[in-house]
Design a protein that fits this description.
This is TetR/AcrR family transcriptional regulator. This protein is an all-alpha fold and 199 residues long. It has helices spanning 3-26, 33-40, 44-51, 54-77, 83-100, 103-114, 119-141, 151-166, 171-174, 178-187.
Length: 199
């Protein structure tokens, strides 16, 4: 990659990061292109040259955001931390993300997800699903997941939650309870957090 291409890509990265930070804090509706340009230290014309419209920019920001989250979870899932620590990181990372995201941006993500052909859906089908399967198998091998519960049953539970969010039945209400719902998924209603197993 030559110097010009590298600078061009870095400028695009700066715009995406600036837009993401603003969308997370204030939502997509209230943030203007001029505010993004100021934060990214570029002109508004530069943003339009790269993305053509605010709508296209939002779409690119969603892809950028989903890739960041996906890469972070891969680091956890395929890392060397003990299984309980991986679960802890996943739970509290989800909680922090839910608390920091402006509801308007969250609703935009859910609206995209509901289409069934979104980038979020693509990453889940092609990457996240494989990661979860790996995590479940690790937990089962190390005695943390009940061997009588199949991957299919766990994935069916995730699918039910996923479909509910797509239809809007729970997406408007789930944000304050993201941490509790994740705990419910991994530990059940008895909250049996088994941390006494040997790694």
């Amino acid at each position: 990659m030559d110097g010009f291409t590298r600078r061009k890509e870095q400028k695009k990265q700066n715009i995406l990061e600036a837009a993401l930070n603003l969308f997370i804090e204030y939502g997509t509706e209230k943030v203007s292109i001029s505010e993004i340009a100021q934060k990214a230290n570029v002109s508004q014309v530069t943003i339009y040259n790269y993305f053509e419209s605010k709508h296209n920019l939002i779409q690119e920001v969603i892809i950028f955001y989903v890739d960041q989250i996906s890469d972070y979870f891969d680091e956890i899932i395929y890392g060397n931390a003990p299984f309980p620590e991986k679960i802890h990181q996943i739970i509290f990372n989800k909680s922090e993300q839910a608390n920091e995201i402006h509801e308007d941006f969250y609703q935009y993500l859910m609206k995209e997800h509901a289409s069934g052909v979104s980038y979020l859906e693509k990453v889940y089908a092609e990457k996240s699903l494989k990661g979860f399967m790996h995590l479940f198998e690790e937990g089962r091998q190390k005695g943390y997941i009940d061997p009588s519960i199949s991957n299919e049953a766990i994935l069916a539970f995730i699918h039910i939650m996923n479909e509910g969010m797509k239809k809007g039945e729970i997406s408007n209400k789930i944000l304050p309870f993201a941490e509790e719902i994740t705990k419910l998924m991994f530990y059940g209603i008895l909250g049996n957090q088994r941390t006494d197993k040997n790694e």
